[in-house]
Amino acid sequence: xxxxxxxxxxxxxxxxxxxxxxxxxxxxxxxxxxxxxxxxxxxxxxxxxxxxxxxxxxxxxxxxxxxxxxxxxxxxxxxxxxxxxxxxxxxxxxxxxxxxxxxxxxxxxxxxxxxxxxxxxxxxxxxxxxxxxxxxxxxxxxxxxxxxxxxxxxxxxxxxxxxxxxxxxxxxxxxxxxxxxxxxxxxxxxxxxxxxxxxxxxxxxxxxxxxxxxxxxxxxxxxxxxxxxxxxxxxxxxxxxxxxxxxxxxxxxxxxxxxxxxxxxxxxxxxxxxxxxxxxxxxxxxxxxxxxxxxxxxxxxxxxxxxxxxxxxxxxxxxxxxxxxxxxxxxxxxxxxxxxxxxxxxxxxxxxxxxxxxxxxxxxxxxxxxxxxxxxxxxxxxxxxxxxxxxxxxxxxxxxx
Length: 401
What we know:
The protein contains 13 helices and 15 strands.
């Protein structure tokens, strides 16, 4: 009797221990599922899901545990992002957060949730210069260059196109203010003339009064720094309808399919856009895009797909390098898997990464969107692409780095 009970108890303990050990390791995906970035989300989230699939097919995390992405909606806005991040950290108990996307949502979630709770946060898209000097205890990173860089590239691109006088309208948030000011300073430094520099509020029904003032300033073109699904497409449409402007220059927030759908390719033929990009000569990028399109039926050319994959993969590598789900240990491991030196590991090479880490060797992840060498502020250098509208999509014509 006692022997039977002992055997049953032992079996139950083994079963319980095995079940507990097999629990999923959760990583948060703080996405703007609704709100002005909603149109960007499906391919971006697919990029993260492909990283999740690569990890699980390549042996899983730690001792074979399953990586599970937990998606929460930031709505690309500050307070909803704080609420969503709080749920991820305190209820879902995620190890780390990939996201948010917009700068304002990322900064709000970082200050209110990630930093005070000691949770690593890696954004694939947030570009506001104000992120650089966050007092974040080294918990907040991004894998796209700051708008301090994109603003300078945009200034060069505008002058290369022959626009010597431009008017600027920028949305009144962290994203718009950051890149708007950087662009203005650099453009004027290079000899350009800003005829009117004006901020606007998002989600207004009409911008006609503001646009009339901008148009009367004598500018060659209008620089629009905003999200297409917020104020951006509406500003372009009302400009065209009222004869205010015919030529537009936009940043990544405007490089949204919704702009083409609402305005039409023909009306955008003389416009161009800049956006964080990937190196053109990267074989890993070409292979990844082919695999992505085969898996999801297309979409690899959409903005920030590469960066979402890389941000998710870097978090997974940090967990593997840390050897545990301890949040502080994971944060401390991020730079060691992202920065040189180390044996190079590329997209889809999770099994190789596991073997190297298990053998105690240093690794250096070289991603779809390039190398991610984090500086002391958690920032990276990067690539900015120049895009035009061709048919029903955007075509990259040049890369700045």
